[in-house]
Amino acid sequence: MGVFSSVARPAVNTFKYMRWAAHERPVVFFSLIVGAIGPIAVVTVPQYRAKLGWKPAERIPVTYPLPDRPRQPVSGYDDE
């Protein structure tokens, strides 16, 4: 019991503390769990998206396309 109990004791204490925190302070406990999942999701979610066939949306144009023809001056508005 000597070696095994000294190795397993921190894990048992950690599990007991997590169980206590989930019951006594659930907001803090679960917000820490969700916060810990965030960085893991940054690494894993894009891989699963690609496997499921997700493709990024087409980029939104930032300029108005000009026509391929010579520009003609505006006329007929009585501003000359």
Describe this protein's structure.
This protein has helices at 2-24, 26-51. It contains two helices and no strands. Helix 1 crosses helix 2 (26-51). The mean pLDDT is 85. The termini are far apart. The relative contact order is 0.05. The longest helix is centred in the middle third of the chain and has 26 residues, at 26-51. With 80 residues, the chain is mainly alpha-helical.
Q: What fraction of the residues are assigned to beta strands by DSSP?
A: under 5%
Order of helices and strands: HH
Structural classification: mainly alpha
Beta strands, count: 0
In helices, the fraction of residues equals 55-70%
Per the principal axes of the C-alpha atoms, what is the gross shape? elongated
The tally of helices reads: 2
Largest sheet: none
- What is the residue-mean pLDDT, rounded to a whole number? 85
Radius of gyration: 31 Å
Distance between the termini: 102 Å
The low-confidence parts are: none
Describe the structure concisely for a colleague.
This protein has two helices and no strands.
Itemize the secondary structure elements and their pairings.
Blueprint: H1 2-24, H2 26-51
